[in-house]
Amino acid sequence: MSVTSSDPRIAGARAAPKRGIRFSWSDPLFRAIIWQIVIVGIVVGIGWYLVHNTMQNLAARRIATGFDFLDRVAGIPIGESMIAYDSSVHTYGRALVIGVLNTLQVRWSGSSWQRSSARWSASAGYRATGCWPG
């Protein structure tokens, strides 16, 4: 028999209507929504308490927050840098940029060393000596 039947009794059949939410503790959908509201409320309340308490404690101790320190003279000696740097003149912001550039430089040089050493050990090293280096 064919999957698509032309039986008039089946042709007009509809899906059962969806049941709406009942405002009762016996309804699992209602309980799930209430629990989600309660948990989100608790998380927001804890977050507000932590931020409020931290701000009060910082104000009581007169501790400044923010990024204003980036404009102050650093006074940090940096041995190697890709851009000009003088610790008596340049700021923390410039020292931060130099630190990021130095990190990228080390990452780049390290990855090129790994590629060249892997190339050597896979080709010349093993074939020339008959054993793996190391």
Explain the overall architecture.
The structure is a single chain. With 134 residues, this protein is an all-alpha fold. It folds into 2 domains: 23-65; 77-127. 56% of the residues lie in helices and 0% in strands. The protein is built from 3 helices and no strands. The termini are far apart. The mean pLDDT is 81.
Keywords:
134 residues, 2 domains
The gyration radius over C-alpha positions equals 34 Å
Number of strands: 0
Tally of DSSP helical segments: 3
Fraction of residues in β-strands: under 5%
Total domain units:
2
Order of helices and strands: HHH
C-alpha geometry: elongated
What's the short story on this structure?
This protein has 134 residues and is mainly α. The chain has helices at 8-11, 28-60, 92-129.
Q: Helix and strand layout, with pairings?
A:
Elements: H1 8-11, H2 28-60, H3 92-129
